[in-house]
Amino acid sequence: MKRRVAILISGRGSNMTALVEAAKAEDFPAEIAVVISNKPGAAGLARAQAAGVETLVIESKPFGKDRAAFEAELQSALDDRRIEFICLGGFMRLFTAEFVRGWHGRMLNIHPSLLPSFRGLDPHGQALRAGVKISGATVHFVVAETDAGPIVMQGAVAVRDDDTAETLAARVLDIEHRIYPDALRLVAGGGTRLDGDICKTSANASPDDSLISPSVI
Ligand code: GAR
């Protein structure tokens, strides 16, 4: 039985699209049952509809600071659809600790940096200002703290001297679209286990698992 997944978005939804595409494979252990946006104008909604996935808008703005009331409506939509896992894909709204606890080990997020470095806004600008030579993206389980929680999968790219936040973001986004479906496949397929703050996995590193940057040859 495929695990039932909801993807939560606020914007363009390119990671959502990557997940929806991957989930079309017969052997994928999860199905995308619904895409929910907290913003009515999110471009990702049209992309999800075009892919034949149910979409739902639960606008967060009318709830103002009342996060719990927004989450109650969200939870009931998730319950109605017997959702087992949540994937956040550029979902720009913080959750209460209580909501996060209820989804412990069942809610994933993707962040465009090698966590725990460069949490929060402008991760690519942060990476460039720090002068790191390797950056990337991280899929992790969601905990109450923003852009933190047990790491499921990471992918890396070399940072170039002439990178801008935009060029780096574009290369990292390609990595995001590769690792998010792989991470969901792993988690939904039962290939991960939480050991406190650490996510242990049955998968191996890829054969080309070293990346040295810059390269001198
Ligand atoms: C992605 O780059 C994702 O990693 C980032 O928002 C973008 C959403 O793009 N998420 C965060 O920064 C979370 N802190 P998308 O809507 O095209 O998937």
Shape: globular
For this entry, what is the oligomeric state of its chains? single chain
Output the strand order for the largest sheet.
Answer: 3-2-1-4-5-6-7
Give the integer mean of the pLDDT values: 96
How many structural domains can be distinguished in the coordinates?
2
- Pick out the low-confidence regions: none
The total count of helices amounts to: 6
Decide which structural class fits the backbone: alpha/beta
List ligands, each type once.
Answer: glycinamide ribonucleotide
Assign the CATH architecture of the largest domain. 3-Layer(aba) Sandwich
Beta fraction: 15-25%
Span between N and C termini? Answer: 49 Å
Examine the coordinates and then state which fold CATH places here, giving the name of the CATH topology of the largest domain: Rossmann fold
In this structure, how is the largest beta sheet organized?
7 strands, mixed
The first-level CATH class name of the largest domain: Alpha Beta
CATH-defined superfamily of the largest domain: Formyl transferase, N-terminal domain
Report the C-alpha radius of gyration, rounded.
Answer: 17 Å
Number of strands: 9
GO biological process, one term: 'de novo' IMP biosynthetic process
Family: Belongs to the GART family.
Site (Raises pKa of active site His): 147
EC number: 2.1.2.2
